[in-house]
Amino acid sequence: MQALELEIRELIISALALEDVAAVDIDVNAPLFVEGLGLDSIDALELGLALQKRYGITLTGDNEQTRSHFASVTALAAMVAARRAK
């Protein structure tokens, strides 16, 4: 799971063009939105598209389950791993 978390941290940096952030700077348990990394709704859309492109997963519309997947890098990694297993 650590390798997948690193991949996702690197994907966040490249998809959102975060120039002054290194993968190791992103806490896997910190919130991605508001606090923590401070992403916004536009970042969520871009990140969702990058995840779809990279991992071939489909994300549903704006609902609580999708929001919970985007809570942290750990949550994203768990979601990607679960969808890969299907």
Describe the structure.
This protein has helices at residues 2-15, 41-55, 64-69, 73-85. Helix content is 56%, strand content 0%. The longest helix is centred in the middle third of the chain and has 15 residues, at 41-55. It is mainly α. It has one domain (2-85): Non-ribosomal Peptide Synthetase Peptidyl Carrier Protein, Chain A. The two termini are 17 Å apart. Helix 1 (2-15) crosses helix 2 and helix 1 crosses helix 4 (73-85). The protein contains 4 helices and no strands.
Task: Describe the protein's topology.
Elements: H1 2-15, H2 41-55, H3 64-69, H4 73-85
Helix pairs in contact: 1-2, 1-4
Q: Terminal Cα separation, in Å?
A: 17 Å
CATH class: Mainly Alpha
The string of secondary-structure elements, in order, is: HHHH
- The CATH topology is given as Non-ribosomal Peptide Synthetase Peptidyl Carrier Protein, Chain A
Name the poorly predicted regions.
none
CATH architecture: Orthogonal Bundle
Question: Helical amount among residues, as a percent range?
Answer: 55-70%
What percent of residues are in strands?
under 5%
Give the CATH superfamily.
Answer: ACP-like
Q: Report the mean per-residue pLDDT as an integer.
A: 90
| Number of domain units | 1
Overall shape: globular
Q: What's the story with the biggest beta sheet?
A: none
Features:
0% strand; mainly alpha; 86 residues; 56% helix; Non-ribosomal Peptide Synthetase Peptidyl Carrier Protein, Chain A
Write a concise synopsis of the structure shown:
The chain is mainly alpha-helical. It has a single domain (2-85), classed as Non-ribosomal Peptide Synthetase Peptidyl Carrier Protein, Chain A (Orthogonal Bundle).
